[in-house]
Amino acid sequence: MATTHFDYLIVGGGMVADTAARGIRELDAAGSIGILSDDIEEPYTRPALSKKLWTDDEFTWDKVPLNTVDDTGADLRLRTRATTIRPEAHEVDAADETFAYGKLLVATGGHPLPLPIDDGTNGERALSFRTAADYRRLRALAHDVDRIAVVGGGYIGSELAAALVQNGVDTVLIHTGAVLGDAVFPPALAERFERLFRDAGVEIVAGAKVEGGVADAAGIRLALDNGDEIRADAVVSGLGIEIATDLAEAAGLTVEDGIVVDAQLRSTTEDVWAAGDVASYPDRILGRRRVEHVDNANEMGRAAGRNLAGAGEPYTHTPYYYSAVFGIRYEAVGTLDSSLETVEDWIDTDRGVLYYLDDDRVVGVLLWNVEDARDAARAVLAEADTLTRDDLVGRIR
Ligand SMILES: Cc1cc2nc3c(=O)[nH]c(=O)nc-3n(C[C@H](O)[C@H](O)[C@H](O)COP(=O)(O)OP(=O)(O)OC[C@H]3O[C@@H](n4cnc5c(N)ncnc54)[C@H](O)[C@@H]3O)c2cc1C
User: Fold this and answer.
1) Which CATH superfamily is domain 114-237 in?
2) Residues with CB under 6 A from ligand 1
3) Which of 10, 44, 138, 152 could pair with 157 as two cysteines, CB 3.0-4.6 Å apart?
4) Which of 46, 155, 289, 296 to mutate to test the pocket of ligand 1 (most atoms within 8 A of CB)?
5) How far is CA 285 from CA 30, 264, 348, 396, in A?
6) 327-391 CATH pick, 3.30.565.10, 3.30.450.20, 3.30.390.30, 3.10.20.30
7) Whose CA is nearest to atom 48 of ligand 1?
8) Alpha-carbon gap, residue 72 to 344, rounded angstroms
9) Is the pTM of this model over 0.85?
10) Ligand 1 centroid vs 128 CA: distance in angstroms?
C-alpha cells in the first residue's frame, strides 16, 4: 500500500478541518497539510444548509464552500474514509492508502441518528440532514412533492420546518415535547416560539414519537407511539447526532462522551489532537463539556491548528450557539434547560435576556433578538459565583 506523508494530517473534512488548516497556516506557511474526508465535496458551512439557502435569495450556493484548499494549499482527499489510526506508527489507513503524519487532528464530527422506518426508496424520500448532498436532495423534494414531514423539534428540525413552509411546502412537524422548544425555553416563550410555526402554516404534531413506518414510491407513512399515522410525500429527520469517535476509541484515545482533550486540545495520545463536535474539552468558564455548535467548531478548529503547528496555547473561548427562524434570532451561552429556574429580563416585547439558574447560580444565558451581547453573557457566567438574581435584571442590554 502506498504511503503519503503529511506534516499535519486532519481526519474529517468539515468545519473544523477548514479552520484548523487556516490555524496551521498562521504559524507554518510551508508544512504539508492533508485532509481525509468521506464527504464528496470540500468543507462547507453547514448552518446555511438549513437557513439562509432557503430564506435569503442573495445567499447563493457559491457562498457555501469554505475554499479551504485554495486558501491553505491543503491536499484534500475526498471520498476517503479513514479506517484505522495507528498512533505508534504515526499512520492512518484509508481504503487503499496509508497516510503518515507528524501531527494528527481528529475532527470527525457526527452522523445523524436514523429514523426507525423501513425505507424502500434508498434515501430518495426519507433522509436525515447533515451534508450538502442532503440539502440538495431536500431542495429537490421541496420542488417536486407537496407535503413533507419533519421529525424532531430541536434546532435542525425547527429550522427545516420553517425553511420548507416558507418555500411553499405543506409541512408537518412531529416532535416529542408538549410545545415546540419546551426543552430549552420556559413555557411562555415556548408557546410564542411554536406560534411562529403555526402562524406560518406548519402543522404541528406534539407529544409524539415516530416508532416505525414505511417509505416507498407511494409516499411516507409514519407510525407514531400514540397509535396515529402521519402521511406525507417525503420525510426529513433531525434527531441529533451520534458522534464519530469509533476511530479514536479503537486507536486507544480516551473517549468519555467525546474524545477527551486538555486545554491545548491534545488527546491522551501523543501527537494526536481533537476538536469540534467530537471533543470533550475543559471550558475555561463552564467546565468540561462537548459542544455541537459552529462557533465552537470555528474557534476550536483554529486553536487546534495553531497548536498542531506548535503554538502551545490554551483554548480559552467559551462558544455560543445560535439559531434563526422566521426573522427571530436567538443566541445562547452555557446551559439552556427549561427544567431550570429562569429569570426573564424583557427589554421590549421582542427582545429579551433569560438567565437559567441552577441552585441560584447562573449556568446559561439566552439572548432573544439581542445583538452584540455574547461577551456580556460570558461575563455573567464567569462571575456567576458572585452574582445574585437582583444583579441580573438590567445587566445586559
Ligand atoms: C444543517 C445544520 C445546521 C447547523 N446550524 C447550526 C447553527 O445554526 N448554529 C450552530 O451553532 N451550529 C449549527 N450546526 C452545527 C455545526 O455545523 C457543527 O457543530 C459543525 O459543523 C461541527 O464541525 P466538525 O468539523 O466538528 O464536524 P463536521 O462539520 O460534521 O465535519 C466532520 C467531517 O468528518 C467527516 N468524517 C467523519 N468520519 C470520517 C472518517 N472516518 N474518515 C474521513 N472523514 C470522516 C465527515 O464526513 C465530515 O465531513 C449545524 C449543523 C447542521 C448539520
Assistant:
1) FAD/NAD(P)-binding domain (3.50.50.60)
2) 11-16, 36-39, 46-47, 49-50, 81-82, 107-109, 129-130, 156, 244, 247, 276-277, 292-295, 297, 321-323
3) 152
4) 46
5) 35, 15, 29, 18
6) 3.30.390.30
7) 14
8) 45
9) yes
10) 13
Cell of 390: 437582583
- Superfamily of 2-111+242-308 according to CATH: FAD/NAD(P)-binding domain (3.50.50.60)
pLDDT digits (tens, 9 = 90+) for 96-124: 899 999 999 999 999 999 999 999 999 99
- Of 105, 277, 280, 325, the one to substitute when testing ligand 1's pocket (max ligand atoms within 8 A of C-beta) is 277
CA 304 to chain centre: 18
Domain ranges for the chain: 2-111+242-308, 114-237, 327-391
- With CA atoms as reference, report the closest residue to 310 among 28, 1, 9: 28
Q: Which atom of ligand 1 is nearest to the CA of 277?
A: 26
Tell me how far apart the alpha carbons of residues 131 and 384 are, in angstroms, rounded to a whole number.
38
